[in-house]
Specification:
single chain; alpha+beta; Rossmann fold; four-stranded antiparallel β-sheet; globular
Length: 119
């Protein structure tokens, strides 16, 4: 199977100095093509932080994240947007719609960047 997502020794810290805390502390993960993976744990355990790190939505403090063999820390913001829009899907617990758009416009908006037509 092909590795789709590979994260190695991922560390994500918040805060500074004595207040700095590792939310992710050396997490490694490998997700292969065709696998279904769930991330579970108590509130505040770093599930969302891990998902944001694996998708390139948030940068990691140290470690590396590869998507289809490409180091996400080495690609531009536009390339990350394209990867997330075309190759990664998220189902969020909380709605992440743009408030000034209705539901249909929120659904159509991502396809407009590629000049695709919605059926």
């Amino acid at each position: 199977m092909n590795k789709i997502i590979f994260g190695e020794h991922i560390v994500k810290s918040f805060g500074e100095g004595d207040e700095q805390r590792n939310v992710l502390d050396g997490v490694s993960v490998e997700i292969n093509e065709g696998e279904f993976v769930s991330v579970m744990g108590p509130s505040g355990s770093g599930k969302s932080t891990l998902m944001f790190a694996l998708s390139g939505t948030d940068c990691v403090t140290s470690g590396k994240v590869l998507f289809e063999g490409e180091d996400l820390s080495a690609v531009s913001e536009n390339e990350l947007s394209d990867i997330r829009r075309n190759k990664i899907g998220f189902v969020f617990q909380q709605p992440t719609m743009l408030k000034n758009l209705n539901i249909i416009d929120n659904i159509i908006l991502p396809s407009m960047r590629d000049n695709r037509k919605m059926l």
